[in-house]
């Protein structure tokens, strides 16, 4: 703490520094984790639901990431103009903050390019840009953690913040909650996948044989069609019930119960995501208010 005070802290925090901190907190504390969750765990959710031909998960992900990018650019420009250049701090951890800021800004800008290439590419190039978009996004999110934690200790943030552990503690709570939600959603995703495979193994065999018989004479990509059907629960349920029309009542009831269990798991995922939205927004909002009133 003495080292912190020796860096010449001030009691009054510059309005531009506060604006920079508030924008970055909202970008990386709220927009980034919720955008990641939507893309990682809800690609097969909301079957058939679209917003102007965009699937719900994509619309949510793009909205969060677009706001994030706009906030990061604005916050970056505010602090660069205010400092009229690069920071002159030389001691750690203060000197790490501007370096991490420039790296994270570059990654955010690069990821916007990779996202555009992902949308407009096909075939092998699409797979390449998908992996680049994922890796760069995760790296930027990871670097935002030390970026924010060191930001709380910057001399320009004043004695009030640097001498208090409340800011870092609240931010770490939001990170821990995000990690818990991430793990739970991942486990539930595997449970849904296992339930689908174990319950509808016979259906897959029947569907594949039927589709190949009907579509191969027309030169259509049967494997791609099967993959799209597998990703659409509503279409899948319709196909299953058609194949089970002549089956025993017990088999029909078992299949219907399996669909209900899968749907219940999906609803729990939606509910958990909604809770994370509320919790992350609440913590970030309180942090922003606290920083704005320094």
UniProtKB/TrEMBL annotation:
Protein's cellular compartments: Membrane
UniProt keyword terms in alphabetical order: Electron transport, Membrane, Transmembrane, Transmembrane helix, Transport
CDD domains: Cyt_b561_FRRS1_like
The keyword Chaperone appears for this protein: no
Parts of the chain that traverse the membrane: 15-37, 58-79, 99-119, 131-149, 169-190, 270-292
SMART domains the record matches: B561
PROSITE patterns on file: CYTOCHROME_B561
Domain of life: Eukaryota
Keyword Transmembrane helix: yes
Annotated ranges, domain Cytochrome b561: 1-194
InterPro entries: Cyt_b561/ferric_Rdtase_TM
Gene Ontology CC annotations of this record: membrane
Main location: membrane
Protein name (record): Cytochrome b561 domain-containing protein
Organism annotation: Paragonimus heterotremus
């Amino acid at each position: 703490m003495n080292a912190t005070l020796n860096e010449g802290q001030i009691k009054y925090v510059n309005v531009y520094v506060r604006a920079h901190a508030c924008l970055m907190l909202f970008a990386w504390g709220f927009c980034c984790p919720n955008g990641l969750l939507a893309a990682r765990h809800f690609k097969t959710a909301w079957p058939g639901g679209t917003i102007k031909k965009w699937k719900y998960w994509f619309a949510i992900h793009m909205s969060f990431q677009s706001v994030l990018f706009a906030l990061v650019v604005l916050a970056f420009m505010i602090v660069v103009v205010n400092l009229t250049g690069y920071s002159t701090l030389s001691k750690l951890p203060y000197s790490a903050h501007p370096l991490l800021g420039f790296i994270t800004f570059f990654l955010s800008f690069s990821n916007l390019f990779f996202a555009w290439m992902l949308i407009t590419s096909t075939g092998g190039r699409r797979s390449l840009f998908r992996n680049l978009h994922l890796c760069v996004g995760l790296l930027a999110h990871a670097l935002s953690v030390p970026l924010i934690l060191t930001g709380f200790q910057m001399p320009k943030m004043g004695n009030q913040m640097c001498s208090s552990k409340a800011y870092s503690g609240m931010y770490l709570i939001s990170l821990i909650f995000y990690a818990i939600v991430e793990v739970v959603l991942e486990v539930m995703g595997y449970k849904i996948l296992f339930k689908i495979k174990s319950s509808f193994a016979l259906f897959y065999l029947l569907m594949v044989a039927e589709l190949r018989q009907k579509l191969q004479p027309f030169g259509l990509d049967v494997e791609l069609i099967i993959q799209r059907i597998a990703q659409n629960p509503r279409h899948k349920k319709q196909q299953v019930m058609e194949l089970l029309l002549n089956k025993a009542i017990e088999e029909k009831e078992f299949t219907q119960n399996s669909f209900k269990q899968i749907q219940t798991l999906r609803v729990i995922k939606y509910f958990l995501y909604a809770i994370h939205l509320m919790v992350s927004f609440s913590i970030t909002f309180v942090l922003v208010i606290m920083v704005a009133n320094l």
